[in-house]
Specification:
The complex is a heterodimer of chains A (113) and B (277).
Chain A (H helix, E strand, L loop, with lengths): L1 H33 L28 H4 L3 H9 L21 H11 L3
Helix pairs in contact in A: 1-4, 3-4
Chain B lengths: L1 H17 L4 H15 L17 H12 L4 H12 L25 E3 L4 E3 L1 H11 L11 H12 L14 H15 L9 H7 L22 E3 L4 E3 L1 H11 L10 H12 L10 E3 L1
Parallel strand pairs in B: 3-5
Antiparallel strand pairs in B: 1-2, 3-4
Helix pairs in contact in B: 1-2, 4-6, 5-6, 7-10
The chains are: A mainly alpha (113), B mainly alpha (277).
């Protein structure tokens, strides 16, 4: 019983730590997604509470349900021309506009939508 | 559905335009594309750029045009145009019809030099031939003012750019077209991505205008810049935006690009100088 309690406390502690790291990433991911000099995803997608959203890409909603496979989402941001050679969406990762780490933070944020 | 239609068109336009279509066939395809895209826009209205497709910004623009911000530029341009060079000649000696009402014929293919001749290059060539220093193509100033005045005297005339049936002229046209349809820069956009395929859609608060009627109103007074902007400066602005390295004004790439987009504006009235956001 005592052991279980310690375990629960330990787990809560670990999860707690993890989720603070997480929420930092989520916040940063949102900034990166909205920043004109970084992802600038808002230029083309309606996202969350973003103002002056563009409308030539689909709204980024229900991301977890629509992109259960994280890799698929990563690849779309890394290089959408793999899927659609004429894509209007820039190959952000491939062309070095944003880094892998930044894309991963954006994904953390997208998964909250 | 809209997306599928778009993709279909994209393939259609790309295949047709990049294959060996004649300029006349390109022009027909181009016009048809915009006719389908904007069924409510009259052909003649494309000279008004984005305002031909976006009613909400049009009203504001029309009220700006009631007190045109470029009026002084036209006056300055007229004065400079008529001011004799040191040798006593004026610009009028270099141009057909003394330089009045001729904007619609530029650019043209100059068979002697085998190059595309734009109005602004011709203005500087005129100076050179008369022993004067060339004017800068940047930041407005006398070049933009003279160009604006010459456009102003041509208002109402319809664009009439000719592609002679010579290999060299066709090559120049094809080079311009190729640049127009090639994805460039870190963000990987072609001119056509924004001004053909996604024209009318929103990029944040910007709506890319239709790629037809793109040179009718240049130079344009941009309220953001607070001055006249030449066509080649505008090209550079769009290239900067996609993080591509812009070319120098009046170099061969831009002259060929201007040749292509101006040919695509044939039949539209000159209404330069214009005003834009």
């Amino acid at each position: 019983m005592k052991n279980l309690k310690t375990l629960i406390i330990a787990i809560t502690f670990i999860l707690g730590l993890e989720s603070t790291a997480y929420s930092g990433d989520i916040e940063e991911g949102k900034k990166l997604a909205f920043d004109r000099k970084k992802g600038n995803c808002l230029a083309c997608h309606m996202i969350d509470d973003g103002e002056l959203a563009g409308n030539n890409g689909p709204p980024l909603i229900a991301m977890k349900a629509r992109f259960p496979d994280r890799e698929v989402l990563f690849n779309q941001i890394w290089d959408p021309t793999e899927n659609n050679p004429n894509s209007f969406m820039p190959p952000f990762g491939k062309h070095g506009a944003i880094t892998k780490i930044e894309i991963n933070k954006i994904i953390e944020y997208l998964y909250t939508l | 559905m809209g997306n599928i239609f778009h993709k279909f068109l994209l393939v259609l336009v790309l295949v047709n335009i990049t294959a060996y279509a004649s300029p006349e066939e390109d022009l027909e395809l181009f016009r048809d594309h915009f006719k389908n895209r904007f069924p409510n826009t009259e052909f003649s209205d494309y000279k008004n750029g984005v305002y031909s497709i976006d009613a909400s910004s049009r009203e504001q623009w029309e009220s700006i045009e009631d007190f045109p911000p470029y009026e002084l530029n036209i006056e300055d341009g007229e004065r400079l145009f008529n001011q004799p060079f040191k040798n006593g000649n004026t610009y009028s000696s270099c141009f057909e019809n003394s330089g009045i009402g001729i904007r619609q014929n530029y650019p043209y293919f100059d068979e002697d030099t085998g190059r595309v001749m734009t109005l602004e290059l011709a203005i500087n060539n005129c100076r050179k031939d008369n022993g004067e220093k060339p004017l800068s193509y940047y930041k407005g100033g006398p070049m933009a003012d003279i160009s604006a005045y010459m456009a102003y005297t041509s208002r109402g005339n319809k664009f009439d750019v000719k592609i002679p049936n010579s290999q060299e002229a066709l090559d120049a046209y094809e080079a311009g077209k190729k640049l127009y349809f090639t994805k460039v820069g870190q963000l990987n956009f072609s001119c056509a991505d924004c001004h053909v395929y996604q024209t009318g859609s929103k990029l944040r608060a910007d709506i890319p205008s239709p790629g037809i009627g793109h040179s009718t109103h240049f130079p344009a007074y941009r309220s953001g810049a607070g001055r006249l902007v030449t066509l080649h400066e505008r090209f550079a602005g769009c290239l900067n935006r996609v993080r591509a390295k812009p070319f120098k004004a009046q170099n061969e790439e831009y002259r060929n690009l201007e040749y292509f987009i101006s040919y695509m504006s044939n039949g539209l009235e000159i209404n330069g100088p214009g005003s834009r956001k």
